[in-house]
Design brief:
- By secondary structure, this protein is of the alpha/beta class.
- It has 3 domains: 174 residues, P-loop containing nucleotide triphosphate hydrolases (Rossmann fold, 3-Layer(aba) Sandwich), CATH 3.40.50.300; 60 residues, Helicase, Ruva Protein, domain 3, CATH 1.10.8; 61 residues, no CATH class.
- It is built from 15 helices and 13 strands.
- It has a 5-stranded parallel β-sheet with strand order 4-7-10-3-11.
- β8 and β9 form a beta hairpin.
- α5 packs across α7, α12 crosses α13 and α12 packs across α15.
Length: 368
């Protein structure tokens, strides 16, 4: 089964002899009970009756009844925020605040202020006091997306918030008590980040009392017709059989978010009076075979190399199709603009050069 369900209804209080140190990598997970799949075909805003999703629902149904910290793991576009909303919606804090803090969309220098707030004069430009996400979520739930973006220097603050339920604003001198359920999410291998010294082991254990893995769309292809119907509900539009067959065989590197964009694009391109999305309107490539390295090396390195190559090609095409307009590209790709800038910097992509290539007829999407 894809999910790890740890038992205690409250985070365990480790003794000095057993507490993991900041540098301790996560140990191998102890055996956990294998839950029978749920009978449900949806949970909160999630839908799909495939076996991987019913296994996920089985865990979520139980976790929602407790207040333990949950770590949601999944690729980009799988619906991590929907999972967090579903947990909160089925729990005792459903009517209380639900605060989303997307660390990928915040400048790294401001992440601590975003989480914990700041006092006036804490840094240049802090001309007034600001309440952080933890204080805003008091009594309810905080969802911290892209938790791996949290710098090592800020991680002890989050650890204290989890262990002692106390936060101190940046520049402040006193702690404030908070009662918050923490749900975090990442598209990275957080255990690998710990092993690499980029994430504290003690914080990882506190966040991952229960680990939930969302299956990528390629592992739940049986749900694609259901998802397509859900996206087209009340529109009077349907997907042609050959188009549906292509949707079901495509690899979906962008997962459900990409499927949504493809369906919306196909619908927007329908001729007047037509109500069926055809294969041509999907705009998917004829093949999505992934080129493998000639001499495969270690799995993790090869996987990261291929993801980087896909990421660079995707962002380049996204920018070119938006004529170099980064804000438009972010909207088209369903990305936060700050995160898109970070990807462009990572892959050395110049939006002005991308615009020039598109208008000179050399863009990667073949449009001149």
């Amino acid at each position: 089964m894809a999910n790890d369900l740890s038992e205690p209804t409250q985070p365990p209080q480790p003794s000095a002899a057993t507490a993991p140190s900041a540098a301790t990598p996560p140990s191998a997970a102890s055996p956990v009970p294998t839950l029978p799949p749920s009978e449900a075909t949806r949970f909160g805003g999630l839908c799909g009756g495939s076996l991987p999703m019913r296994e996920l629902y089985a865990v979520l149904e139980r976790v929602a009844r407790s207040d333990v910290a949950v770590l949601i793991e999944g690729e980009t576009g799988t619906g991590k925020e929907l999972v967090a909303e579903a947990i909160r919606g089925a729990g005792s804090r459903a009517a209380r605040p639900f605060v989303i803090c997307d660390l990928a969309g915040v400048a790294r220098s401001l992440i601590e202020s975003e989480l914990f707030g700041h006092v006036r004069g804490a840094y240049t430009g802090a001309d007034r006091e600001r309440e952080g996400a933890f204080a805003q979520a008091n009594g309810g739930t905080i969802f911290i997306d892209e938790i791996a973006e949290l710098e090592l220097s800020a991680q002890p603050r989050l650890l204290r918030a989890l262990e002692r339920r106390q936060v101190k604003p940046v520049g402040g001198s006193s702690y404030r008590e908070v009662d918050v359920r923490v749900i975090a999410a990442t598209n990275r291998d957080l255990a690998g980040e710990v092993a690499g010294g980029r994430f504290r082991g003690d914080l990882y254990h506190r966040l991952a009392v229960v680990r939930v893995r969302i299956p990528p769309l390629r592992e739940r292809r049986d749900d694609i017709p259901v998802l397509a119907a859900e996206l087209l509900a009340d529109t009077g539009v349907e997907v042609a059989p050959d188009a549906m067959a292509r949707l079901c065989e495509y690899r979906w590197p962008g997962n459900v978010r990409e499927l949504k964009n493809v369906i919306e694009r196909g619908r927007s391109l329908l001729p007047a009076g037509d109500h069926r999305i055809t294969l041509e309107l999907l705009g998917l490539p004829a093949t999505d075979d992934v080129p493998l390295p000639r001499a495969p090396g270690r799995f993790r390195e090869e996987k990261e190399r291929m993801i980087d190559a896909w990421e660079q090609a995707y962002v380049t095409r996204l920018i070119e199709r938006a004529d170099g307009n980064v804000s438009r590209a972010a909207r088209d790709g369903g990305l936060d603009r700050v995160y898109l800038h970070r990807l462009m910097k990572k892959h050395n992509i110049d939006h002005r050069a991308a615009r020039a290539r598109r208008w000179s007829g050399t863009g990667t999407d073949g449009e001149g």
